[in-house]
Amino acid sequence: MKAKALFFLFFLFVGISSHLQAQISFDAKVSKKRLGLNERLRVDFVMNQNGDNFVPPNFTNFLVVSGPQQSVNRSWVNGVSSFSKTYTYFLTPKVKGQLTIGQAQITIESEVYKTTPIEIVVTEAVEKPNDPNNIDYLTDENIHLVAEISNPSPYLNEGITIVYKLYFRNPISITDVQELESPSYGDFWSSKINIGRAQVNPRGQYKGEPFNEVVWQKVVLYPQKSGELKLEPLTLNLSLNVPSNRRDLFGRRILTQGQKTITAGRRTLRVKPLPLEGQPENFSGAVGQFDFDVILSKDALRASESFQAKIKVDGKGNLNLFKLPKINVPNTLEVYEPERSENIKTTLAGTQGSVEENYTIVPQYQGKYPIPEVQFSFFDPKSKSYKTLRSQELLVDVYDGPTAGIANTDRQDGTLRTPLPVSESTFRFIQLETKLTPIREPSFWMSSKFWILFSLAFIVLISGYLIDRFILQKSEDSSTIKQRLAQKLAKKYLSSAKKAQGNQVEFYEALERALHNYLKAKLKIETTELSKAKIQTLLKTKNVEHEVAKDFISVVENCELARYAPGSDGSIQADYERASKVMATIDRQL
Q: How confident is the model at residue 405 (pLDDT cuts 50, 70, 90)?
């Protein structure tokens, strides 16, 4: 009986232990599994028992807007206690497609628990994102992104312009703008107009109301096929200062920082095909308003000279997208391939300038040669009709040269070509009977040259090793060795600080050590010399900007203060990012 009782107690203990173990949970929850590119996603990592060493996922392809925000909830219901601890992040997707939120991990009672990865589908940006957690109705009324299209129904290959404008007004102020998604213009020939640095126009108008206006982008497009063509939306992520409901001692509203993603929305163009009625046979796709001419460099020359014939088209339209007509000359004139030159600029009025093709022509015999007229056809979208321009018929007078013989049609295109006279002694310089003897080159392998080069290479390798071993390595003084060691320690402690973001004391100790060792490596000083005044003086002598040095000292002061006055997890993340940024800035300025 005693053995049975012990056996029963053993299984009861195992069952209770397994039951307690099974009650520990650590889960990831998201506000939605399908969202637009300009919407926000809330991710909660929830545990039912207190844990340590929380490690978030990398959030690949997401922008962390805020977090982690930590909250703890304890409750008693009918004598039963419940506990929950939550780490919350707000994210914005960077790309479209199926994205994955990886595993987070936590240590609870010396055991490591991990969440299950979550699949998120990100679609195109929506015109009115619906996210009650972070989107303020105030920003919807006072920020707008608009795509202004010059002509929503152009002809094929007719130029149109798109101007993207950002409108905002008080009480909203924008501190930073990032372009999340740019249109690719796959069905268009496109050219972006350089606008330089964005300028704010305080006298802008949006739907008849005054707004601040910023021209963000200008593009000139030429549609390459007819029908309904979709324009992908432009999407921007804005960093904002928004007034809150709180006020300071003087009654002024306290500003809070926030993020908002806006889109210009998808637009549709209805591209009309060019009419077939009245289309000339020599039409090559030119659309716009053009002038045309054929110009000769000279109209009288000797047979041994050459002249140029220039075909020139100038005006406004799709100058990059059509072929110039060919010149037609008599067969006794030798014509070379033309050289193309362009003088084109793109503005909001479209693409304008000139396109030229220069032919070099060499006459072989004397005579007077007519240059027939050349025709150039284009479609004018303003008059909605085809137009054909013709050059004048020109005449070239070739004098002081041989007279042409009997013509012969020996060209592939059937044009006439006059043969040159050939005498019997033309090719007598060619030797028909030759006496050739084989050339035998000595083998390089295992020759004296081979062994000499092999020995020289071996001597160079040994010499290089001895120089590095006994001269270069010994020439490093103790300060250089200390500098390298300090650099390694700075990287080590900075990495330790990143891993210890869940523990405030360990984080700030590691971050302060990283900052101290970084200065030792960069400024060649000892730890005992690290007074704030000394740091600022040394950084100034190294041509580091005053604001950067001041920011570095501020991070050091935050580390010292945080070791005695506990801060929030949000300040931990901010201090780590500030430390990384200021060290990178000092690296560039040094």
A: low
